[in-house]
């Protein structure tokens, strides 16, 4: 594994909105947690809303919200945290039956029983949302993974070839960092027929050590696929002992994970941004990455950052 000096991010914009999610709220996303680019759009899933944020790829024009769940969330932080669906991951799926141009899948963290929901959204040939979102039941994962891995906290979802990889976020209290591998064809079949996901497509659970910043472990916060079969990931060192409570962020990092599960590159980020979402493309030897942040403060807008990372050589 290669370690390099701290990575400097370039701030591109705040994730401001043309209108807030409800009266009394502020017109921005604050807890950006997942990021996908499709066509001319950047889709951002926040973990403290019932909506998806839709932004232009270029410029600073305010984004719009698309409703995913009915109802209003409380404005108070503690009550909001208890009631929110906690959508932490967003992944673009390839075309399948009923979704000729693919779909977006937003996944709850499954850290509590009320967070075991996902939303499936069709997109058209231009990457625009197409039709009404559909709910997906993840409740089978709550008990299924508890026996194998402990308390879930799913923070990333990535399509790598014929597999869907979930990134399990560990914590300081003994929660384990892991890559969860599913057969993509079986996941898609289940989505198309039953609108639920269970343990049947599971291939393997691989624990992955990302190191520490001080005495706080670096733990997955998102991932993005590269065309060569590897994954770019983000990780944060958050001083918390469980999958529910937030803690002080002691730093973050960006890395590259090989198909074999080995960390090939790990670069710490030069400031204490809590980076929670990443989108990336590799051109030659350079990875161009976009990242979004979570301030853990509803009054502070999330930001979009960009950076370039020198890609490590592929393992033989």
Automatic annotation (TrEMBL):
* Pfam families for this protein: DUF6929
Q: What InterPro entries does its record include?
A: DUF6929
**Annotated protein name in UniProt:** DUF3616 domain-containing protein
Q: What's the source species for this entry?
A: Usitatibacter palustris
């Amino acid at each position: 594994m290669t370690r390099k000096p701290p990575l400097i991010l370039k701030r591109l914009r705040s994730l401001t909105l043309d209108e807030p999610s409800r009266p009394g709220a502020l017109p921005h996303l604050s807890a950006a947690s997942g990021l996908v680019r499709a066509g001319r759009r950047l889709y951002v899933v926040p973990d403290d809303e019932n909506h998806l944020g839709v932004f232009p790829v270029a410029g600073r024009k305010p984004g719009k919200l698309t409703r995913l769940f009915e109802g209003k969330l409380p404005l108070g932080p503690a009550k909001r945290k208890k009631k929110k669906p906690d959508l932490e991951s967003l992944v673009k799926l390839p075309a399948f039956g009923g979704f000729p141009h693919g779909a977006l899948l937003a996944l709850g963290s499954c850290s509590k029983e009320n967070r075991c929901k996902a939303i499936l959204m069709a997109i058209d040939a231009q990457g625009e949302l197409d039709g009404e979102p559909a709910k997906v039941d993840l409740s089978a994962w709550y008990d299924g993974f508890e026996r194998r891995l402990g308390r879930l906290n799913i923070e990333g979802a990535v399509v790598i070839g014929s597999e869907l990889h979930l990134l399990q976020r560990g914590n300081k209290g003994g929660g384990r960092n892991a890559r969860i591998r599913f057969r993509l064809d079986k996941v898609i079949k289940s989505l198309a027929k039953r609108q639920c996901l269970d343990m049947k497509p599971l291939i393997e659970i691989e624990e992955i050590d990302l190191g520490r910043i001080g005495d706080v472990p670096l733990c997955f916060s998102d991932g993005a696929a590269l065309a060569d079969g590897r994954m770019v990931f983000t990780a944060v060192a958050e001083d918390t002992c469980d999958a529910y409570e937030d803690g002080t962020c002691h730093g973050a990092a960006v890395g590259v994970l090989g198909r074999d599960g080995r960390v090939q590159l790990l670069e710490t980020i030069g400031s204490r941004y809590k980076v929670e979402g990443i989108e990336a493309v590799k051109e030659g030897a350079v990875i161009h990455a976009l990242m979004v942040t979570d301030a853990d403060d509803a009054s502070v807008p999330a930001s979009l950052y960009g950076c370039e990372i020198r890609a490590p050589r592929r393992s033989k």
